[in-house]
Amino acid sequence: MHPAFSVLIFTVTSGAGYGLITLLVLAQLAGLPALQDRTLLLAGGGLALLMITVGLLSSTLHLANPKNAWRAFARFRTSWLSREAVFAVLFYPVALLYLFGVYTQGADLNGFFVFCAILAAVLAMVTLFSTSMIYASLKTIRQWCTALTPLNYLVLGLMSGALWLLALQALLQDRLSPALQGTALGLVVLGAVAKLIYLFWIGKPAGATIRTATGFTQASVRLLDAGHSAGTFLTDEFGYTVAANKLLRLRFAMLGLAFLLPLVLLWQGPAIVVLLAALLCMAGLLVERWLFFAEARHVVRLYHGDART
Questions:
Q1: Which SS3 state, helix, strand or coil, does residue 10 take?
Q2: What is the pTM of this model?
Q3: Domains of the chain, each with CATH number or no CATH
Q4: Shortest CA distance to 108 belongs to which of 57, 173, 37?
Q5: pLDDT tens digits, residue range 161-172?
């Protein structure tokens, strides 16, 4: 599949924002001392909303007719895209109410604002899950149609959100919270494991082949004529191909930027180092999301010369 840069920005930044607000709420309600500071809570919530907004706005850039974006809300019962849009809109007023409660009451919230905080965290995770299911529900793309897709979206969103929360806490309080540092380290390790499992799974020789697509399972099948003499929308978007050695180099770059370097830097301690870890992680996740699209193989490729998906 052809990677659209606007979609890469959307999924990475909004995922980090949803992960950040979720961990912010959980840490505050759990009574973590570092998260009982009004300034940190408002800064974290503001950053999360900014990242989510930037991501959602960028998602409209790949639309052929942005004026028709409202149609995304019209198929809630059958479309994960519609569910994502609805939950993303519902998230905003609830999150703003929670932050208003923090602004007026500090970390000691009353029952109503506690409910808003919990609901904001739930809507954040539901929205992120809905985004992942847009891809995981497509049976025509083997690399996406797996439970590993929503698992990776959720884990990587929480991982990047944890790094940003730790960076903010270190910058504003001039020290690292051991609990937040341990959480970030654990999520980085979990994210790396989830991604490696996904890479191993998509590398297995499984899925549809040109023989199963045509029904001639007991014969040798090859394409004689593609039916066109120039590139088409299908070949440009669904037939996107990258050299194997380039994919391998990008995989190593992704693992280093998104997981290995942040893991090493988190042990160092100074706030600027943790901020660098968060920035490197975002760069690595952009590469990860580019690979997520570039390595996906639509079954329509079988009718344009590919032997398997």
A1: helix
A2: 0.91
A3: 5-304 (1.20.1630.10)
A4: 37
A5: 999 999 999 999
